[in-house]
Amino acid sequence: xxxxxxxxxxxxxxxxxxxxxxQRPSPARIQQEYAALEAAMxxxxxxxxxxEGKSADPREGWKKKWQQFAEKYPDSExxxxxxxxxxxxxxSMQDAQGVADYLRMAAxxxxxxxxxxxxxxxxxxxxxxxGVESTTEQLKKIADTSKVRENQAAAAVTxxxxxxxxxxxxxxxxxxxxxxxxxxxxNEARRALEEIKLIGIGAPAPAFEFTDLEGKKIALxxxxxxxxxxxxxATWCGPCAVEIPQxxxxxxxxxxxxxxxxxxxxxxxxxxxxxxxxxxxxxTWPQYFDGKGWENSISRLYRVTxxxxxxxxxxxxxxxxxxxxxxxxxxILAEKLR
Length: 338
Description:
Elements: H1 2-23, H2 27-50, H3 59-72, H4 77-92, H5 96-108, H6 115-145, H7 149-161, H8 166-180, H9 185-199, E1 209-211, E2 217-219, E3 227-233, H10 238-254, E4 260-266, H11 271-281, E5 287-288, H12 297-301, E6 309-313, E7 319-322, H13 326-336
Parallel strand pairs: 3-4, 4-5
Antiparallel strand pairs: 1-2, 3-6, 6-7
């Protein structure tokens, strides 16, 4: 009797397991559900654009729907796409706190396939809000507890980027490549390593020469012995416009100093717009222009990927400061040019 009862219980357990397995949605069904949600969201946003101001903002509602989808299918390929939409919606709503706090979620779910995308999107904002120590703590949680190699790599390479100086960053990236050379972040790590060695702090500034808007020939080599400020900007760049007053103050304060030179590197396409802006703003320092926008030859030489951007080169021709705001540069130069 005991054996019969045990057999019945085992059989029932197996049948129940099979039933649960059959209830699991197939990858095709998850994909269909994802596609339907995405299509509905895009349709609602399209209607909202046509009826601007007449309907409520749908973004918060869609953020919740994508959160529900991601929680429902946490290990699916589509969950990663859902988290992408959540992050995109939060960024469009300027919800910096929400984007930053996503990193904590990644640390709590270190094996989720969404971790690499979350790390990439959240770390820059988390770093601004909570600082290096807390950011490092969250990334180490992922690197140490995740069983997914790509997730470990995403955290490990970001930790390498956070090293405080180039020598430590180079060593960290080299260690990363030894351990994770076959992962997705490895190619970017190799590029970053090459870039640091070529144009990192302390590296010799790549040489260039050009003829400025007024026909004057400029060569970086001729400026050796001076602090040389390169200002990468464009007339179409809103944040650049905010920095122009600071650049003008720097030029006004130091233009007559024998050990200072300032060069503008324009990423414009339209020369007439550039000339008009330079004249209107009274930007009297030399300007480089080749009309190629992001393909601007000096910008590519210095690996510029966002503007406004600055590079400060010391009298020995080495890069000493990068991506430093104008107000901070003014203090640095005041110290260097006393």
